[in-house]
Amino acid sequence: MTLTILDGSIGQELVKRSSEAPTGLWSTEVLLKQPELILAVHADYFAAGADVATSNSYAVHRDRMARFGIDEQFEPLLMAAIELATAARDAHGSGLVAGSIGPAGWSYRPSQAPPEEQGAEIYAEVAKILSTHADVLLFETMSSVLEAKSALMGSRSVSKPVWLAVSVDDTDGSKLRSGEDLLDILALAIEFQPEALLINCSVPEAVNQSMAILDDKNLHPMRLGAYANGFKKITEEFVTGDDAVVDSLEAREDLDPETYASFCETWISAGADIVGGCCEVGPAHIQSLVERFKPN
User: Fold this and answer.
1) Phi and psi based region of residue 2 (left: phi greater than 0; alpha: psi -120 to 50; beta: remaining)
2) Band of the pLDDT at 246, cuts 50, 70, 90?
3) What distances in angstroms separate CA 189 from CA 179, 183, 199, one per listed residue?
4) Mean pLDDT for all residues in the chain
5) For an engineered disulfide with 178, which of 110, 204, 206, 284 has Cβ 3.0 to 4.6 Å away?
6) For the whole model, what pTM was predicted?
7) Residue 164: C-alpha distances to residues 24, 86, 113, 154, 223 (Å)
8) pLDDT confidence band for 245 (50 / 70 / 90)
9) Longest dimension (CA), the chain
10) Which residues face 98 on adjacent strands?
11) C-alpha to C-alpha distance for 81 and 57, rounded to whole angstroms
């Protein structure tokens, strides 16, 4: 299987480039006020050599929009996000568009996930809208078996390929953030047959552990992938705060592009054929991956 190189962080790149302080809406605010920045971020990742543009739709859920009084913007924001990613891909001339769908409730808070059937309905609605343009649906940062199952159930509402990305404990890559065993996800994968299973938005060291576990399993024809974050840690304030903003999360200073590429090399050796970056992993990191793994 040819190596697919994802893009990197969308939200954190937008926070860095925006002139406005981040809010609890995170990068969704930029869709409303500065969509041109999103197009520029996508273009920069393609220029760096990425094969995929991931839509800036991760946090666009009805409950999140309602919390900020903009629930009427739900569908227009999803369409804007996927259309911007598609426009960037078309301008580049090649590549995939991945429709990003984050966890219902809040990132890293699996205890707040809605019940299975309700969650499936939430994910199905988002999937139907994004699938109008997306080549693949990317369910990201699913932190429990419940979140992952609801997402996979919702994905059955469309006929697009599905990539499921789960987030693991930063101190123990054998566990989901819920504390459940990573291997519990495999039963779901066997049942629902997503095209790819990925580990995302955890520290690279934990991803090493996760990939070593998955490497021991015969998962073919399922693809494996990984894209870590560059945070020092997910703070208690961010996990428990009602209006948590990314200002409470701090970037590592030891994860330069070459160092990150070395982590990715470990994941590729463990069977990953999809690699890229999550929060705090930017265009320079993606360029380093391209130069190391897909040189001209």
Assistant:
1) beta
2) low
3) 18, 10, 13
4) 93
5) 110
6) 0.95
7) 25, 21, 16, 12, 10
8) low
9) 49
10) 54, 136
11) 6
Mean of pLDDT values over 153-173: 97
pLDDT of 127 higher than 90: yes
CATH pick for 4-293 out of 3.30.70.1450, 1.20.1250.20, 3.20.20.330, 3.30.70.3280:
3.20.20.330
Residues 111, 116, 117, 120, Cα dihedral to 10°: 90
Could you identify the residue written with the tokens 């299973």?
197
- In sequence order, the 6+-apart residues with CB closer than 8 A to the CB of 247 are 21, 22
Round to whole Å and give the CA distance between 186 and 197.
9
Tell me if 39 sits within 8 A of 87, measured CB to CB: yes
CA distance 294 to 261: 12
Q: Which two tokens stand for residue 239?
A: 């996990």
168 vs 142: CA distance, rounded Å = 9
Phi and psi based region of residue 144 (left: phi greater than 0; alpha: psi -120 to 50; beta: remaining):
beta
What is the average pLDDT across 165-190? 96
Does 220 score more than 70 pLDDT?
no
| Residues forming beta bridges with residue 164, ordered by sequence position | 139, 197
Residue with tokens 């954190």: 12
Q: What is the 3-state secondary structure (H, E, C) of 143-179?
A: CCHHHHHHHHHHHCCCCCCEEEEECEECCEEEEECCC
Axis-axis angle for helices 116-130, 145-155 (nearest 10)? 50
For 36, the token pair is: 């041109």
